[in-house]
Amino acid sequence: MPDATTSGGILLVFAIVFPVAGVLLSLVVGGRQVERIALIILPCNLILASAIFFDLWRSGSQLIYIVGGWQPPLGITLRADGLSAAMMVTTAVVICAVGVFAHADFDTRAQPFETRAPFVFWVLLMAIGCAMNMIFLGGDLFTLYVALELLTFAAVPLVCLDGRAETIQAALRYLLFALLGSILYLAGTALLYGSYATLDIVLLSQRLRVETATLVAAVLMTVGLFAKTALFPLHIWLPPAHAGAPASASAVLSAIVVKGSFFLVVRLWFGVMPGLLGFTGAQLVGGLGAGAIIFGSVVALRQKRLKLLIAYSTVAQIGYLFLMFPLAFDSVSSQLQSSGALTGGMLLAMSHATAKAAMFMAAGLIYAALGHDRIAELGGAARAIPMTVFAFAIGGVCLIGLPPSGGFLAKWLLLDAAIATGQWSWAMVLLVGGLFTAGYVFIVVAGALGSPHEPLKLRVAVPKYQEAAALTLALLSLLLGFVALGPIDVLQVRPGAMMAALR
Amino acid sequence: MSGANLFGICGAALVGLGLYGLITNPEPLRKILAFNLLGTGVFLIFGLISRRAAAAGFPGDPVPQAMVITAIVVAFAATALAVALVLRLLEQTGRATLGADNPVSEIGNP
User: Fold this and answer.
1) Model pTM?
2) Which class is domain B3-97?
3) For the stretch A431-457, what's the b/e string if a residue is b when 16 or more beta carbons lie within 10 angstroms of its beta carbon?
């Protein structure tokens, strides 16, 4: 039975078209109006994402839009299942908060003339919103390739907004890694099309056979996406890029952009080829994740600068996301199960998005207030800018995984899966990683709570709305644990679940 | 050797060369060129697949051709962006390298 456009399907088109319209309009009306356009488009994006989420929650079935009425395999389908709706809402919330936060640094009306960095920032922020929505909704692998490239082109210039040589170098390194990743992904799609004559995710998952060409394609695409997600050992571009960017840009890059390629890995392995990874492959992916956790945490502990510490913490937290692969592997059917481990992993991605954005914002405020971000000299910061340090600490609590944060619920689900499948070693990795995280968060918070060597003089007064933006995101990540009371069921809305019900 | 095999082997060779250059060469400009070689190899493979997947009576399957046009545009835009970054780096520092002589600790100072 071919899919048909569902009643709410048009929302999916709006979610992609709106931000694009914002970008195009910005180019037409010129630099000084761009912030206003963004401040209309970004809340609209959030409303659309919430509408899609609630439609899904109420109806319990996915939203589909067949573009132009052309059915797959030739046509393109937009699909919103539970994973995409939840990720869309998270992304929209974070981008909105970044929009509020960034007003101080990128006010397009601060100067009587058009300035480059603010204009570029707002256009790229809308472009990232669009690219992420496309990644979450795209129903075929080639549309996802285009979305991935769109995301790269929007993210790379954000790294070097201030135009210093170090950041340009970081952006160039990021771009080269991203290009390698996307061309490998493209090679994989070519091979898959050659074998199955379709790139539609649902059709592919039905037609898939275990054969050499499919395996090669899967490996190429996965390695490409790992490079873009900065999974250890392909992470070396991430710390300089994320630490060098302005605070608002770092928040988007670390919280949102790496989740784009991560989401594609999940789509690929859980949606298209759940039976292909096998026990060894799942353990290998988990091993890379464990390597990332250990390496990222140890290096983060040794950092002297706050922004670099947070960037290395991102490397470690990305590792956590990949622990769900061995935990979701069911040895009886030798398939990846869309079960508690997947829910836990996605929830971890969402809580990391909110918490990490809050932490980067807080770091940016600390830098602006103190004029430096040397961890050893943070003394007195908690007294001078208490809300900011509190936001950082709450974000840290979520990363560590203390209740009732989203991180706690996510790690609980992962631990549960580890125990249910008898994989104790992964439970150990989860717990040890939590200890490491507690270590580096504690170093920063304890430093900020200490007394200064000399009386602290703030360079600038930190605007209240910036602190509020950081604190809101941090509190959201803390309260995310309460989704267990209801909306978490949305994550179970999947095409596979529906097909099973139809049978 | 049939034409299809020749295209396939050429594509594979280009992918190999490009991948080798992209990984081993430290010069950004050469990395960008290597990326283009790698891309060309993948595009050739698309052409080959278009030929192989053709239904009876058609010289080629149009879908991979449509995809490869998009991919070429994307690769062109990516190359332009990368070259612009290299030029900007050259303008500012007088050299364009990705070497580790810039200690990471210098970065992160907005």
Assistant:
1) 0.91
2) mainly alpha
3) eebbebbbebbebbbebbebeeeeebe
